[in-house]
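User: Round two. Same drill as before: sequence, then structure, for each protein.

Assistant: Same drill it is. First protein:
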Amino acid sequence: MRDLSGVFKAYDIRGVVGEQIDADLVRATGAGFARLVGGPTIVVGHDMRDSSPGLAEAFAEGAAGEGVDVINIGLASTDMLYYASGSLNLPGAMFTASHNPAKYNGIKLCRAGASPVGQDSGLTDIRRDVEAQTPSSGKTAAVETRDLLADYAVYLRKLVDLSGSRPLKIVVDAGNGMGGYTVPTVFEGLPIEIIPMYFELDGNFPNHEANPLDPKNIVDLQAKVVEVGADAGLAFDGDADRCFVVDELGQPVSPSAVTALVAVRELAKDPGGTVIHNLITSKAVPEIVAEHGGKPVRTRVGHSFIKEEMARTGAIFGGEHSAHYYFRDFWKADTGMLAALHVLAALGEQDGPLSALTREYNRYAASGEVNSTVADQADRLAAIKAEFGGRDGVELDELDGLTVQLPDGAWFNLRASNTEPLLRLNVEAADDAAVAALRDEVLAIVRA
């Protein structure tokens, strides 16, 4: 029996093409997914990687061999696949490795209505099915192609009205990923001039990694925004489900500030609604949500936890520090494009620059994520807990790793990586000096 535990991850299937993932594995996975969902139809999309069309085709063959019809929407961003799954009420499969290098590919699976399939919600069953080499049923079903890009764009524009916006000039860095495919159609007809960067679809990522979370990958965007005098810049990751924002000065707008801004807009439509935020977003997010009459709910890091809480609470919106944004009106799924439209609508409704607009959502200084390689994660976490737990006025919680709240309002979270021997530290305090002091104090213990 083949062991696929290294390929079937917590939330998706991912690996090196030709070594860990090939057409035979994907064909068997398509059959296993078809058996899991039971048909009658599934929808499949893929990104711009060289390997993606062939793998998507093999997956469709496997599903069709189980008697399940397949709608292949071809090139798509991940949130476009979620749109297809939601609007058609069908299970779906998206072929992408997001921001990973060109040699990787993978599959994100969802049930009808874009409900996620993860380790505890079907992915383990599919893996066992594939490992056991369950024989095909030998049935045949239809595979049809359908273009949903225009429908996806119309749906997003219905959720955010930009018709009254002042004219805006926006630089968009697609990183040679799927934003280069979706942005022109989504923004067509809007009072927004798009200055494109790296819109050519190229899964080899010739200009920079399609991972805007790494500051080095938005340097070109920052320079271009200042050079052309743009009102803002947007950077998408490879599968265009995450969006990062840069203001007119070329400065990054933190995903926490975007979360707070979008939450305020969603609460204006649905007063008293619940907003989800993970525990390492800025504490400004729950403060601002509460100030606008909403109910903030704090969760662990990870999209499965956000989506579970969205479903449990009926939340209207959720945001993460990693620039994943989840909308009840988008089947509780994440879409960076919709968050970007909200930011641009807010900017276009008033005359000031984006830096002034977002200032009110930036209340504290933050370290960003600081990683430390350690020999024993549990031992170092215990050392931090022992050091800070005995101090007056300090509050500890272990919802996800260890969060330490200090009496002066500063806080930090220390979490173990699930896949590497790392501890991840995030610090927030009143100003940069306070952040640096607390960060260095914690790291001295972690790295001792």
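Second protein:
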Amino acid sequence: MADYSFGYGGIGSGIDISSMVSQLVAADRAPQDARLAKLESAAKFKLSGVGSVSSAFDALKTALDALKKSDAMGARTVGSVSADSTSGTDNVLSASVGKGTPAGQYQIEVLALASAHKLMGAAVPSGTLFDAGQLSLSMGGESVTIDIATGSSLADIRSAINDKAASLGVQASLLTSDDGQHLSVASTRTGAANAVSIQLVEGGGDLSTLVGGLQQKTAAADARVSIDGLITTSEGNAIADAVPGMTLALKATGTSTVTVATDAAASRKPVEDVVKAYNAAIKAIATATSYNKETDTPSSLTGDAQMRGAAGQLRAIMGDLLGELAVQGLDARTLGLQTRAYPSSDGTLVLDSAKFDAAMAANPGKITAAFSGSEGFAARLSGVVEGYVGTDGSFTLRTKGINDQLKDVARQRESVDLRMEATAKRYQAQFVALDSLMAQMSTTSNYLSQQLAALSAQLA
């Protein structure tokens, strides 16, 4: 209750004006507060019901969006074994696959591994110093010039190469043997296109001898692989997408058999997610619209026409979709997907995992096409759900409308507060005027009493 005390205690009348004003204002605002509280309670009750159903529809929309993707049911397993293996392992390669990789067996022969180019120089006595000059180093279509200062050691030349050529992917180092120091220049990138070439641009015989003494230790070579008789090459020892979605990490030359199969559990999961989310949506509507006969208590949306319509539309589209699957030969006996039967026929779905997995193993392409894509099961059901929880969906708009009602109740409360403030001031003014009048009357009464008393004394 608001505090309407104003420091005036009823001097003339003795009335507790502040208390009287507070009680009168409270009596005035009680019916208005009750009306607004009832409106707010009803709105919040409905909002909770619409919110729970909307959340369930949102979850269903998320599950359907995942199932709509063309690779949603394309989960795969992969295994490989090399021909020389006695333990079932693969010494030749390792394979990984993504969704949609064509299932089957692939005979793969690694003909050559990719290697990085490496040059090794002749022995140079420790402490040798070189005259000034300039080198040109090229790799992979790019080149840099390397300036050699007068009096440079072999270590200085190594550092000069690294400073200028590291960005190309070239690494120079010094190796020491019994004969002396050796300059090693190597590419950090595998592949035939990444061969290193060093030329003398200018300088004396010492630099010319150093450059001329560089001999190839490891050739720059591409990896070569035969996949079911088809040759593919790669700069590195990873072969990607020669088979769609498959990556091969090469270990050694040799022959390997790679087997790609449908991952039954992972392919079934997006369908199971939709079944669970659909059932949750049906149950959310049932809960929000239920009526407890024992306690004679309605739920937040008991008898709500919108919710009845939503449940009816879900059941209708699901009936159509299951019927269309049956026409394609994917009925309950084949696919394992159907509505729950009597005596628990509440409109929810059941999925027989064993039947679904068997159907996927027998005809994965047909089932994937039936459920995924722009015209599949998921897309059509998603269109219906979008009509409820999309940007302009009916549940979305209804939620906005209820929130607007709550905002209006808050505005009405503010108006009531302002009116009650005005009412309190009016009551205060009236009581102050009454108190003043009673004070005047009291003064007059006292005066008359004194006069009468004096008159009586004179007559005595």
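The chain has three domains: 39-71+265-398, 76-114+223-262, 116-218.

User: Perfect.
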